[in-house]
Please model this.
Amino acid sequence: MFLNTKLTEMIHEILIPIIKPGDTIVDATVGNGFDTLFLAKAVGHQGKVIGFDIQEKAIENAKKRLGSEGLLERVSLIHDSHSNIDQYVFQPIGGAMFNLGYLPGGSEEIITKAESTIKALEKTAYLLSRGGFITIISYWGHPGGKEEKEAVEQFLNELDNKAFITAKFNFLNRSGSPPIIYLVQKL
Ligand SMILES: C[S@@+](CC[C@H](N)C(=O)[O-])C[C@H]1O[C@@H](n2cnc3c(N)ncnc32)[C@H](O)[C@@H]1O
Model:
């Protein structure tokens, strides 16, 4: 059932008809590499995935995952903050995924933060080709999460509506601090 699946899988379902073979897509938060692997399959052998993470452990985990599937060739894994995306990506991109929060199974203290997330979103929006997308999952129950969520929401509210459509998917009857999905598309 669609609404009862993992949020990351929901995003994958949304993106399957949107990502085209040969696209260049950014995974802004590689983590354990599950999204990177999904993207590497979706872009096909002529496509490219560029992944960022500030944790060496995340880059290593992802490298192993992609290597075991024989897909490392179409992926560049960059051990740096996504806020420096403009130092690595110079061509228009088909899309980008941001899966905010901390590395599952890793330190809960190493989290994505409002300032670098917004810097990265600004630069990524600028890199999007026409029709290109950004997906953001905001897990915001941890310390610092609410501040980041509010910054993301303000950024998306203020994004030029002649150039971008922005949207928000919110669970209404889930307890706690249910994650939020934000979607952006360049017109
Ligand atoms: C929720 S996890 C991502 C999960 C991942 N998409 C997966 O499939 O396993 C968030 C990741 O963002 C990383 N991160 C935190 N700050 C970052 C930054 N400024 N730039 C890039 N990655 C960052 C963390 O190290 C963590 O691995």
Q: What stands out?
A: The chain has one domain: 22-186. The first strand starts at residue 24 and ends at 27. The beta strands are 24-27, 48-52, 75-78, 93-99, 128-138, 164-170, 180-186.
